[in-house]
Write a structure and sequence with these properties.
Distance between the termini: 65 Å
CATH superfamily of the largest domain: NAD(P)-binding Rossmann-like Domain
Number of strands: 7
Structural class: alpha/beta
Shape: elongated
Number of domains: 3
Largest sheet: 5 strands, parallel
Strand content: 5-15%
Length: 236
């Protein structure tokens, strides 16, 4: 009986093992490659650009949007078929072609090179997958079903977008400005914890959502003292 209970415990633990390791990746100024210039490739490019990457696109044909980005200097386009040498110097590659054999070859070569590789809609040939994202400034909420149901990820994203509005972007901008100012006063980060907990529990998000500037400044004064005004902080 005791052995059976132990096995049941192990099974329960294994049931919730994660297929993927959640991570937020800094690709600012890193070289990233997108293979494929259609609608899917265009979406991949836009996400990479929004994260500050240096993006190169390899594709015999490219969407109008990608051509406009290339004309403005935002991306580099190589209007030709993919070559394995295109992977040289790249931090990650996203393959977004409708040629599944080519996608697999790109994945295999990327694996050999120790590169990050994502193949659109083919989690079995990816070493990372892209979650659905709710983006509110510095608040990033990532939703993943580990590739099992992209449709459900999309539904969850839409549900969360209704809950987390733009007030969270302003809230985090304010919190970052407060943290920076406190650190500039030679405070130790550990000493800030109770102050931020008071700000959070004081209903600051709701005040921002309802544009109650007087109430926000009153809360900041009560908890932080003089010199912490909302409009001045978020304009820095």
């Amino acid at each position: 009986m005791q052995k059976k209970c132990c096995l049941d415990g192990v099974r329960k633990q294994q049931q919730y093992n994660m297929r993927y390791y959640p991570i937020c990746l800094d690709i600012q100024n890193r070289n990233c490659l997108v293979v494929g210039g259609g609608s899917v490739g265009t979406r991949k490019v836009l996400t990479l650009l929004n994260c500050g990457a240096n993006v190169t696109v390899v594709s015999p044909a490219a969407s109008t949007h990608l051509q406009e980005l290339a004309s403005s200097g935002s991306v580099m386009i190589k209007n030709r078929p993919f070559r394995f040498s295109d992977l040289t110097g790249m931090f990650l590659v996203c393959s977004a072609t409708d040629n599944q054999e080519l996608n697999r070859q790109i994945h295999a070569k990327a694996e050999d090179l120790g590169m990050l590789c994502n193949v659109a809609d083919r989690p079995e040939v990816c070493n990372f997958i892209l979650p659905s994202i709710v983006n509110r400034g510095d608040l990033i909420i990532a939703i993943s079903t580990s590739g099992q149901s992209p449709a459900f990820s999309k539904k969850l994203r839409k549900d969360l977008e209704k809950i987390f509005g733009n007030e969270y972007a302003e809230f985090l901008k304010l919190m970052g400005a407060v943290r920076k100012k406190l650190l500039g006063q030679d405070h130790q980060p550990e000493a800030h914890k109770h102050l931020f907990e008071q700000l959070i529990n004081g209903g600051l998000v709701d005040m921002i959502k309802e544009h109650k500037l007087a109430d926000i400044d009153a809360l900041l004064l009560k908890i932080l003292g003089k010199g912490f005004e909302f409009e001045a902080l978020i304009s820095e």
